[in-house]
Amino acid sequence: MKYYENPLSLNLCGIDLKNPVIAASGTFAFGFEFSKLYEIEKLGGISVKGLTREPREGNPSPRIAETYGGVLNSVGLQNPGVETFAKNLLPFLAPKDIAVIANIAGSTEEDYCYMAERLSSEAAVSFIELNISCPNVKAGGMAFGIEPKSVQAITKLVKKYSKKPLIVKLSPNVADIALNAKAAENAGADAISLINTVQGMAVNAETRRPILKNVFGGLSGPAIKPIALRMVWQVYNAVKIPIIGMGGIMNETDAIEFFLCGATAVQIGTANLIDPLASLKIVEGLRHFVERNKLKNLQDIRGKLIVE
Amino acid sequence: MKEVYVNVRENIELVKGSIHKMVFVCPDLPEFLPGQFINLAVGNYEYGALLRRPISVFKHDAAAKTFEIVFEVKGKGTKFFSRLKGGFLPATLFLGNGFTIPAGTKKVALIGGGMGCPPLYSVIEKYKKEGIKFYTYLGFSSREKAVCLEDFAAVSDKLTIATDDGSIGEKDFITNVFMKDVAKIKPDLILSCGPVPMFRSLKALNLDIPTYISMEARMGCGIGACYVCACATISGNRRVCRDGTVFDIKEVLL
Ligand SMILES: Cc1cc2nc3c(=O)[nH]c(=O)nc-3n(C[C@H](O)[C@H](O)[C@H](O)COP(=O)(O)OP(=O)(O)OC[C@H]3O[C@@H](n4cnc5c(N)ncnc54)[C@H](O)[C@@H]3O)c2cc1C
Ligand SMILES: Cc1cc2nc3c(=O)[nH]c(=O)nc-3n(C[C@H](O)[C@H](O)[C@H](O)COP(=O)(O)O)c2cc1C
Ligand code: FES
User: Is A134 a catalytic residue?
Assistant: First the structure.
């Protein structure tokens, strides 16, 4: 089926996706494991595990805690580094009909620029996602993602080195999300993705100790959906570039709420851990939704939230 | 590795209010290696218990399309499992690299601690017919928690038990009891599953026998995709769910 005949298809920053369902960074590794459970090409895209210039070991265990309606993680960007990704892991995704988003995180401006340039030379990479929002490590770039001024500066700089559409992934741990989104847009971002995890902690009352070895972690899952929807709606009303919404999407109904609030595409994170087939089921669910509502294209509902 | 629904056929309370054995039927049962685990959903992921619970396999019967787990009630998830009388649960099976016994091995020592004992049964189940001798050492806190003994007695060449309080077997750590016998039985291989302190004692014995241990970690996906289940090794952090759960004891930083 040609993309324009497919009611789930969309064009994101000049790139055709067969549907707007993208696996979120950090919950899908590099696609290999999930490909043993289903054909990952059925998804619109995959945002790979956050990459750093050099390999990283991440934080000590335990790195995950379950909370009411959510999950706290403190993985701390364990990844094999950008070079191993390009040489050994990307070739698995390259022949597949799925958009690859390279999620990058750094501790210096130079790291970000180097990775953007390096990954731009890879034909199999469709987008670069600037992660300036990982709450778990200093190298995760959250320092760049808090103040609108620094969001603008890093975006502007990396944009010069990126030959692929640049998605800026925003942190919810900020004062005014709309200001940060505008800052990214003004600096030349091609799209915005949000939200990354909300900083939190969990305590074991018996042992009187934090559950995560790292003490703090990032909260994800259904518990953060209301925050994510609010922020997507605020950003939609502030910028013109496309928005990739995420935060607690468990099923197609959740995804539709994000489209109504202005998202062009969605990413599915924690749901992949809870039900490994979740992303696939969401694609199917959206297909039924467009049929039931006789939509020519799912994009017709984008931003159509009725606020009276 | 497959995502399936498993049907609860039996749920037997082995220890009142604590340890249960559950028998599942699954028509679409994938291949299994001893020591592998399942990632079992707490119902249809009711909020409050979102994550799946990793539980090892006790017995596996490919022909009957059944398998069994033994678990101790700890918190929300295991309490939920303990109350089930039937029905279906989503699960990913079977996960982890499992225990392997190289060809030519003649004598294997199995060393289990607490809830790490039942998974060792699946090793004997698979390799018994190859004529390998199994010397099984199981350690528990007390007689009350010493489960599956009859199962092990039926298949082990020798079964030795130890408890912390001496209520059954020797009153000692199981690793100490094993140490007294090791010169006599001369195993070619040691396979172990249990708590980390037991692995530390095992490592401290400094035996010149290949030793493999099955590690635990808090998990997310259970399939290798989320990097939450790190275990520190001499070659850096590895994923317990995919690079393990079984590691060479020499490689793990215990
Ligand atoms: C590979 C593997 C195999 C296991 N096999 C068995 C088995 O055969 N029998 C058995 O009784 N137990 C086994 N466990 C431990 C079992 O997973 C935990 O006891 C169980 O997850 C506790 O869940 P809960 O909801 O009752 O407790 P809660 O405290 O409510 O759990 C909260 C969260 O912490 C996690 N968690 C708590 N304790 C552990 C633990 N010890 N290990 C890993 N995650 C934990 C839970 O999965 C959950 O995500 C195994 C663990 C692993 C990693
Ligand atoms: C275990 C785990 C690891 C994550 N790692 C990354 C990462 O490397 N880079 C990143 O940009 N976001 C990472 N995230 C954040 C997710 O991509 C997503 O923004 C967030 O979890 C909210 O979506 P969700 O509620 O659907 O999970 C991670 C999330 C989880 C749960
Ligand atoms: S639990 Fe996800 S990688 Fe091991």
Answer: yes
The reply to whether residue A222 touches residue B237, judged by beta carbons under 8 angstroms, is no
Residue B216 near residue A44, CB atoms below 8 Å: no
Asked if residue A14 is part of any domain, the answer here is: yes
Distance CA B77, CA B57 (A): 17
Q: What is the pTM (predicted TM-score) of this model?
A: 0.95
- Other C-beta atoms closer than 10 Å to the C-beta of A102 total 29
Query: Which of helix, strand or coil describes residue A63?
Result: coil
* Ligand 1, CB cutoff 6 Å, lining residues: A 66; B 37, 51, 53-56, 69-72, 74-78, 115, 118-119, 216-219, 245
**Full pLDDT tens readout for chain A, 308 residues:** 555 579 999 999 999 999 999 999 999 999 999 999 999 999 999 999 999 999 999 999 999 999 999 999 999 999 999 999 999 999 999 999 999 999 999 989 999 999 999 999 999 999 999 999 766 666 556 678 889 999 999 999 999 999 999 999 999 999 999 999 999 999 999 999 999 999 999 999 999 999 999 999 999 999 999 999 999 999 999 999 999 999 999 999 999 999 999 999 999 999 999 999 999 999 999 999 999 999 999 999 999 999 99
Q: Among B1, B51, B236, select the one facing A274 at the smallest CB separation.
A: B51
What residue in A sits closest to B5 (Cα-Cα)?
A275
Domain count, chain A: 1
Residues of A in contact with B51 (CB under 8 A): 64, 66, 71, 273-274
What range defines the domain where residue A245 resides? Answer: 3-58+77-202+220-301
* Domains by residue range for chain B, with CATH: 2-95 (2.40.30.10), 107-214 (3.40.50.80), 217-254 (2.10.240.10)
Q: Cis ω on the peptide bond leading into residue B94 (within 30° of 0)?
A: yes
CATH number at residue A285: 3.20.20.70
